[in-house]
Amino acid sequence: MKTGRILGMVLGGIALSGLLFGGLWFANQRATPDDAPISETPPIAASLTPVTISTVTELTDDIGPTLRISGQGEAGSTIVLTDRGEIVRQVRVGPDGIWAVNLPVSMAPMAIEAEQLTGEAGSDAQVSIRGAQTIFRIHRAADRAAGAPALIMISAPATPSQIVSSPFGGLPGTGPLYLVAIDYDDAGGVIINGLSEIPGRVRVYVSDSAIGETRVGPDGRWAYIAASVLPVGEYDIRAEFQSEDGSTRAALTVSFERLPPLVADQSDDGALQVGFTPYRWQIRRALVGGGVQNTVIFAPENVPAPPIPPEP
């Protein structure tokens, strides 16, 4: 199915997105993700391969659903996987720098993160490096009963969230233009990311006021990134597409809500909140060490999914 293919293609850039950890992506800019600055790497980690998540697949057998997760890391190191702060599995990185693991699926919302341990355990030479990415899996009982898929999403602070599986069964879109997700922080910084079947430019509007535009990348992805442009409240966000030759135009509109910032006693490290409506879900996560990441996903329009562009 085209919908299955389009939800699968968004994993192509996951390994690189983990390297862009930090807040610099929310700097005031109007560029594609490839143009975003990269924060400096701490000297102690300069020679180490960081832990990244490359693929996530949900498998179902006689026992029940299982998440198959694979990624990259420093050869010979240990990857510690946690779900909402609780250790659920440890796995060794192979000599080729690849690790993989199967995790039983919990019926409660899952927030899976990876930490890499290198060096002799308990020694001063041991180094612990926390991965930037989080895998979210959320599947409500009513959705399971109705046969709807779980939400499976990979997010990292200040990078575009990627959807592996949507509870709505697809992405909102019209013509060649599709929306994947909207990420924002408590300061109003935003990343709006999507897909396009053909090259061109995407202009973004908030309540009919243009806030900027970005270009579709060679891989068919686009992202608009800006700081402090979204007011608190509910309003429409619209994306308008124009092909490079001007012959094709398309537009899509979603009803968006920016939540008020969390107060101090609401922002416990790792706290997870999910708001549900029939046409959008909003996932809010308090980040370890401070800050909040919000991700909003939307129900699709009744349009076919675009073809999968080739990986670069």
Q: Which spans of ≥5 residues are poorly predicted at pLDDT below 50? A: 1-45, 302-308
Mean pLDDT: 82
Total number of strands: 20
Report the span from N to C terminus: 22 Å
Largest sheet: 7 strands, antiparallel
Strand content: over 45%
Number of helices: 3
Using the alpha-carbon principal axes, give the shape.
globular
* Rg from Cα: 19 Å
Instruction: Give the SSE order as H and E letters.
Output: HHEEEEEEEHEEEEEEEEEEEEE
- Percentage of residues assigned to helices: under 10%
- Alpha-beta classification: mainly beta
Overview of this protein structure:
The two termini are 22 Å apart. The chain is mostly beta strands. Strands 10, 11, 12, 15, 18, 19 and 20 form a 7-stranded antiparallel β-sheet that branches. A hairpin with a 4-residue loop joins strand 1 and strand 2. The protein is 6% helix and 46% strand. The protein contains 3 helices and 20 strands. 37% of the residues are buried. It is globular and about 60 Å long.
In a nutshell, what does this entry contain?
This protein is mainly beta and about 300 residues long.
Can you give keywords for this protein?
globular; about 5% helix; about 300 residues; 7-stranded antiparallel sheet; 20 strands; single chain; 6-stranded antiparallel sheet; disordered N terminus; 3 helices; mainly beta
Topology:
Blueprint: H1 2-9, H2 14-17, E1 52-60, E2 65-72, E3 78-83, E4 86-92, E5 98-104, E6 110-118, E7 127-138, H3 141-146, E8 151-155, E9 162-165, E10 173-174, E11 177-184, E12 190-196, E13 200-206, E14 209-215, E15 221-226, E16 233-243, E17 249-258, E18 272-276, E19 280-286, E20 292-298
Antiparallel strand pairs: 1-2, 2-5, 3-4, 3-6, 6-7, 7-8, 8-9, 10-11, 11-12, 11-20, 12-15, 13-14, 13-16, 16-17, 18-19, 19-20
